[in-house]
Design a protein that fits this description.
Elongation Factor Tu (Ef-tu), domain 3, 3 domains, 6-stranded antiparallel beta barrel, alpha/beta, SH3 type barrels
């Protein structure tokens, strides 16, 4: 079987290619370039950022790795599509007072989508595509569906970022690291001399101030409480995030948190901790990852951000593209634009984009 492996030059992707080659697969490596040579954006502070000019420089080292492993290697320039698809979505969402997940869109649209179409157009033939993500894929014979599951190493689990993969994408994807602990992967990497011990890992998609990517000039606006009283001023709502506590520059008897962002009136709405909890959220643009509905009497674990441990909730399907979540206990930091992913144990049931909550409606009134 021929397997195309996405190579970033990091520990995880290199070990992925090594493991597959060791298991007897016919392996070929591919790297997608997403940073444009004439990019108008400043280079991120961290060279380990995904969206960085440093990634283009890595292709020399990746080519040497592939030569040593004895596998073919191709570099594909996806920068135009990345900018028009991922960055434009990022800018549009942020300027609409929403907080997007660029990695989620990149996985669905670019890495597991157009990149593979592009590779085939270039004459690369393969049966499966593999990456160094920490997640697992299983097949359920009873219902005839592919299933996305958490990795064995839950601290490194990346299933949250992969929930938008379709049944077709899951059927043609391999995640060899899903059954490994990160410590085991590092041991293999050091033993095989792929990297020096202590090699740094890639961080966020852009290791700098996100406002650098927005092309937005500062605009003075009000910081208000939930009653609409002006408490201070800011230079643009897009400089703030839901749940933010530091950097507000407002004296108050208790800590204040950003509760909501108002793009229409350029307002930042703040409040006390007691005002931040929410028990309900509406989710749209849903992908039915492993199941097509929810059990009405089951308590699911719901993640509203990648670092979340998962909150207990009842989930109800409202139509083919949406569902609503009723948390058993109020949760904080619910953010429009973020992904909401529903788990049943280690199974990714479905996920979508947070659209609104009662808090959004009450503070915007």
């Amino acid at each position: 079987m021929k397997v195309l492996v996405g190579l970033s030059g990091g520990i995880d992707s290199c070990v992925t290619a090594y493991l597959l080659k060791k298991e007897g697969y016919d392996v070929e490596g591919v790297t997608m370039l997403i940073w444009k040579k004439d990019s108008p954006y400043p280079a991120p502070v961290s060279p380990n950022s995904c969206y960085s000019p440093a990634r283009a420089e890595d292709k020399v080292h990746i080519a040497e790795f592939c030569r040593k492993l004895g596998i073919p290697y191709t570099v594909l320039d996806c920068s135009d599509l990345y900018e028009s698809t991922v960055l434009e979505n990022f800018r549009s969402e942020y300027m609409s007072a929403r907080t997007p997940n660029p990695c989620v869109w990149c996985n669905e649209k670019i890495k597991f989508g157009v990149l593979l179409d592009y590779a085939r157009e270039k004459g690369i033939e393969f049966d499966k595509f593999a990456t160094g993500h920490y997640a697992r894929i299983t097949y359920n014979d009873e219902i005839g569906r592919w299933e996305l599951r958490k990795a064995v190493d839950e601290k490194k689990d990346q299933s949250y970022f992969l929930y938008r993969l379709s049944q077709k994408q899951l059927s043609t994807t391999l995640f060899p690291l899903g059954t490994y602990l990160k410590s085991q992967v590092r041991e293999i990497d050091v033993r095989e001399h792929f990297h020096e011990e202590g090699q740094a890992e890639s961080q966020d998609f852009y290791g700098g101030d996100y406002s650098d990517l927005l092309n937005a000039e500062d605009r003075i606006g009000d910081i208000v409480n939930t009653d609409g009283k002006v408490l201070g001023h800011h230079k643009g709502f897009w400089h703030y995030t839901i749940g933010q506590r530091r950097g507000l520059g407002i004296a108050a008897p208790q800590p204040l948190y950003v509760l909501a962002l108002d793009s229409v009136n350029n307002r930042v709405i703040v409040g006390y901790d007691s005002e931040a909890g929410q028990s309900y959220v509406y989710v749209d643009t849903v992908n039915w990852t492993s199941r097509e509905d929810f059990s009405s009497d089951k308590v699911y674990q719901v993640k509203i951000r990648s670092a979340s441990r998962g909150e207990d909730a009842y989930v109800r399907k409202t139509d083919s593209t949406s569902f609503e979540v009723h948390f058993l206990s109020p949760v904080k930091g619910v953010t429009a634009g973020q992904s909401c992913v529903v788990y049943d144990g280690d199974l990714v049931v479905a996920g979508g984009i947070i659209e609104s909550s009662p808090l959004d409606k009450s503070v915007m009134a």
